[in-house]
Amino acid sequence: MPIAACIFDAYGTLFDVGAAARRAASEPGAGAWSHRWPELAENWRRKQLEYTWIRASAGAHVDFWQVTQDGLDWALERAGLGDAPLRERLLALYRELDAYPEVPEVLTRLTEAGRRCAILSNGTPGMLAAAIGSAGIGAALEAALSVEEVGVFKPDARVYGLVEARLGVRPAEVLFVSSNGWDACTGAAFGFTAVWVNREGAPVDRLHGRPAHVLGDLSGLPELVARIS
């Protein structure tokens, strides 16, 4: 079946989740912790995701901004960094994360080829609006769908169901693109044609679905869409 829409995860797929810690580490005053930013960024991201999974399975939903703060607090404590101004700076930078370098051109090429493009994300509407605006990619996106519409995080099927409910596109017509291996797998299990953006060369997750395609970054996506449509 032809691809009717390209649906993107946001964080880690379009937006570089390590950018906040990397930028803060390069600013004046970073000092002793500046060389430790990769560890801080990794722990922040890991806890952020773990908390979404635990809250989804426990039925204890809070929004992604709260989870993002909770993950950061854990990562800062782990690093022995109790600096309140640093916490606030990192959170401010997270709201304006850099897009990966290839993202604007890829989205432009897809839309110029007549492809519908949208985001499906754990992020809150406010977080997504801020990141999209900062990256300057809003003109290429038809919608930014947030899990807040259903009150549960990925990989709950109700989240993936938002695509058909909001855009009128059946799962078999969706190319779902995520850098999170688990998300690509569960999106595939839902019925999407899934593309895993495997930026780190990791093994495929052993789950109940498997991505149909694997890319090292997004740059080859327009050619892939043209080939399979």
Name a few traits of the molecule.
single chain, alpha/beta, DNA polymerase, domain 1, 6-stranded parallel β-sheet, globular
Question: What would your notes on this structure say?
Answer:
- It is globular, with a radius of gyration of 17 Å.
- It has 2 domains: 142 residues, HAD superfamily/HAD-like (Rossmann fold), CATH 3.40.50.1000; 76 residues, Putative phosphatase, domain 2 (DNA polymerase, domain 1), CATH 1.10.150.
- With 229 residues, it is an alpha/beta fold.
- Helix content is 46%, strand content 12%.
- Strands 3-2-1-4-5-6 form a 6-stranded parallel beta sheet, with helices on both faces.
- Helix 2 packs across helix 3.
Task: Map the helices and strands.
Elements: E1 5-8, H1 19-25, H2 37-58, H3 64-79, H4 84-94, H5 103-112, E2 116-121, H6 125-135, E3 143-146, H7 157-167, E4 174-178, H8 181-190, E5 193-197, E6 213-215, H9 221-228
Parallel strand pairs: 1-2, 1-4, 2-3, 4-5, 5-6
Helix pairs in contact: 1-2, 1-4, 2-3
Distance between the termini: 7 Å
Order of helices and strands: EHHHHHEHEHEHEEH
CATH topology of the largest domain: Rossmann fold
Largest sheet: 6 strands, parallel
Which bin fits the share of residues in helices?
40-55%
Concise summary:
The protein is an alpha/beta fold. The protein has helices spanning 19-25, 37-58, 64-79, 84-94, 103-112, 125-135, 157-167, 181-190, 221-228, and strands spanning 5-8, 116-121, 143-146, 174-178, 193-197, 213-215.
